[in-house]
C-alpha cells in the first residue's frame, strides 16, 4: 500500500469501504501538492484550518498534530475513513472536528483547503456557507487532479470569494489560489424542488443530491413496479437519496415500517424533510450509514435499491455488489431485494450468485427491475 509522505507526516492510509487487494490509494497528487503548498506558507499550532471534501482523511490526518483542524464533507464513508485513519496512524480522534456538510460551520478559519468535489453544486453551497467564516488575512486554496477540474470550479471560487490564480501543474494536479474579498452576503439557490404527479409530491433536494432538478430516469422506471404487498412489513430504502422510493412505498402501505439510509448527509437531510412533508409524524428510521452494515441480520422483509455505479470519480460496481451483500444479510428468510439497474450492468447474474432465485419484474429499453429472494 503506498505511503503518503508529506512535510507534516508520513501516513499509511486506507480507503472506505475497504476491499481485498485494494487497487486504489487513499490520497492523490492533489493532496500532496496542497500539503506542500501549506507547508511553504507556514503553519502555527493555533491556526484554524478548515478542510472541505477530504475523501479519506489524508489532509486532516497529515495536519492533526500541527494545527486546529475542522473537516467538513457530505460523505459518511469519508467520515468513517477519517476516524479509522486517525486510529491506525495513532492520532487522537479529538485532534480533528468533523462537521457534516448539512450542518453550519463555526469559524473564523485562518486557512481553508478545498478538494474540488465531483458535484459543483456542493462546492457552490460550501462556498456560500463560507461567507462570514474567514478570519482577516485568511488563505483559501482549492485542489484537484487536472482531469477532474472544470473551469466552472474557478468561476465559483471567484464569484463567492475573490480573484483566483491557477498554479502550475505538478504530477497532473493543480491548485487554485484564492484572494478573499469582502462580498455581499450571497443567497443560496439550494435546496431545489421538483414535483411528482403520481403520487402528488413536492420533493426537496439539497445541493449534493443526485438529479436535483428532477426525478432520475432509473427511479422513474422503478416507481410503477414497487412491491405492493400490504401489512406490517419491515422495509428499507437503501441508498435513499431524497427518499422518494421509501416515501412512495410508505404511502401505498400504511402499516409498513420504513428505514431510509444513505451515506450522504445532504441526502438524509432531504429525505427527512420530504418524509415530514408527505407523511407527517409517521414513525420512520432515517439515518446516514455505510449502507446496511449496521442493520441487524434477519431484520428486514423488503429492501428497495437504485444502486450507485460510482464512488466520487471512480466508476465501478463494487459499491452496488456490497449493497447487495448487505441486503442479503439484513433480510429474513424469504425476504426480497428489489432493484432497478441499467440493462448492460448485468445485475441479474450477480444477484443470482448471491440469492439463487432472481426474477425480472419489468423492463424498459434502458432499465430492468429485478426481484431477488433470500432462501
TrEMBL record:
<dbReference type="GO" id="GO:0032259">
    <property type="term" value="P:methylation"/>
</dbReference>
<dbReference type="InterPro" id="IPR017237">
    <property type="entry name" value="RLMG"/>
</dbReference>
<keyword id="KW-0489">Methyltransferase</keyword>
<dbReference type="InterPro" id="IPR046977">
    <property type="entry name" value="RsmC/RlmG"/>
</dbReference>
<dbReference type="InterPro" id="IPR002052">
    <property type="entry name" value="DNA_methylase_N6_adenine_CS"/>
</dbReference>
<dbReference type="Pfam" id="PF26049">
    <property type="entry name" value="RLMG_N"/>
</dbReference>
<dbReference type="InterPro" id="IPR058679">
    <property type="entry name" value="RlmG_N"/>
</dbReference>
<keyword id="KW-0949">S-adenosyl-L-methionine</keyword>
<keyword id="KW-0963">Cytoplasm</keyword>
<comment type="similarity">
    <text>Belongs to the methyltransferase superfamily. RlmG family.</text>
</comment>
<keyword id="KW-0698">rRNA processing</keyword>
<protein>
    <recommendedName>
        <fullName>Ribosomal RNA large subunit methyltransferase G</fullName>
        <ecNumber>2.1.1.174</ecNumber>
    </recommendedName>
</protein>
<feature type="domain" description="Methyltransferase small">
    <location>
        <begin position="201"/>
        <end position="371"/>
    </location>
</feature>
<dbReference type="InterPro" id="IPR007848">
    <property type="entry name" value="Small_mtfrase_dom"/>
</dbReference>
<keyword id="KW-0808">Transferase</keyword>
<dbReference type="InterPro" id="IPR029063">
    <property type="entry name" value="SAM-dependent_MTases_sf"/>
</dbReference>
<comment type="function">
    <text>Specifically methylates the guanine in position 1835 (m2G1835) of 23S rRNA.</text>
</comment>
<feature type="domain" description="RlmG N-terminal">
    <location>
        <begin position="1"/>
        <end position="181"/>
    </location>
</feature>
<dbReference type="Pfam" id="PF05175">
    <property type="entry name" value="MTS"/>
</dbReference>
<dbReference type="GO" id="GO:0008168">
    <property type="term" value="F:methyltransferase activity"/>
</dbReference>
Amino acid at each position: 500500500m503506498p505511503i503518503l509522505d508529506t512535510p507534516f507526516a508520513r501516513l499509511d492510509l486506507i480507503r472506505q469501504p475497504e476491499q481485498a487487494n485494494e487497487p486504489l490509494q487513499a490520497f492523490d497528487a492533489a493532496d500532496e501538492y496542497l500539503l506542500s503548498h501549506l507547508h511553504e506558507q507556514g503553519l502555527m499550532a493555533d491556526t484554524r484550518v478548515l478542510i472541505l471534501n477530504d475523501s479519506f482523511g489524508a489532509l486532516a490526518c497529515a495536519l492533526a498534530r500541527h494545527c486546529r483542524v475542522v473537516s467538513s464533507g457530505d460523505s459518511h464513508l469519508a467520515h468513517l475513513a477519517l476516524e479509522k485513519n486517525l486510529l491506525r496512524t495513532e492520532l487522537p480522534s479529538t485532534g480533528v472536528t468533523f462537521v457534516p456538510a448539512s450542518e453550519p460551520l463555526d469559524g473564523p478559519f485562518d486557512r481553508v483547503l478545498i478538494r474540488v468535489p465531483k458535484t459543483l453544486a456542493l462546492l457552490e453551497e460550501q462556498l456560500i456557507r463560507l461567507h462570514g467564516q474567514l478570519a482577516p488575512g485568511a488563505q483559501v486554496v482549492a485542489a484537484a487532479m487536472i482531469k477532474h477540474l472544470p473551469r466552472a470550479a474557478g468561476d465559483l471560487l471567484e464569484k463567492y470569494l475573490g480573484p483566483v490564480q491557477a498554479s502550475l501543474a505538478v504530477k497532473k494536479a493543480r491548485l487554485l489560489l484564492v484572494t478573499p474579498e469582502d462580498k455581499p452576503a450571497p443567497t443560496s439557490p439550494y435546496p431545489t424542488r421538483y414535483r411528482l404527479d403520481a403520487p402528488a409530491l413536492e420533493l426537496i433536494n439539497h445541493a449534493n443530491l443526485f438529479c436535483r432538478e428532477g426525478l432520475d430516469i432509473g427511479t422513474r422506471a422503478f416507481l410503477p413496479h414497487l412491491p405492493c404487498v400490504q401489512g406490517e412489513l419491515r422495509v428499507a430504502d437503501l441508498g435513499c437519496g431524497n427518499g422518494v422510493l421509501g416515501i412512495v412505498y410508505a404511502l401505498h402501505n400504511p402499516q409498513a415500517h420504513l428505514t431510509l439510509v444513505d451515506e450522504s448527509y445532504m441526502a438524509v437531510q432531504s429525505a427527512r424533510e420530504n418524509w415530514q412533508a408527505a407523511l407527517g409524524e409517521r414513525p420512520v428510521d432515517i439515518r446516514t450509514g455505510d449502507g446496511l452494515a449496521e442493520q441487524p441480520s434477519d431484520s428486514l422483509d423488503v429492501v428497495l435499491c437504485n444502486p450507485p455505479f460510482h464512488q466520487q470519480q471512480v466508476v465501478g460496481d463494487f459499491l452496488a455488489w456490497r449493497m447487495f451483500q448487505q441486503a442479503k444479510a439484513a433480510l429474513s428468510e424469504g425476504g426480497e431485494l428489489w432493484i432497478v439497474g441499467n440493462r448492460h450492468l448485468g445485475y441479474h447474474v450477480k444477484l443470482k450468485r448471491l440469492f439463487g432465485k432472481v426474477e425480472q419484474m419489468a423492463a424498459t429499453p434502458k432499465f430492468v427491475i429485478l426481484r431477488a429472494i433470500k432462501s
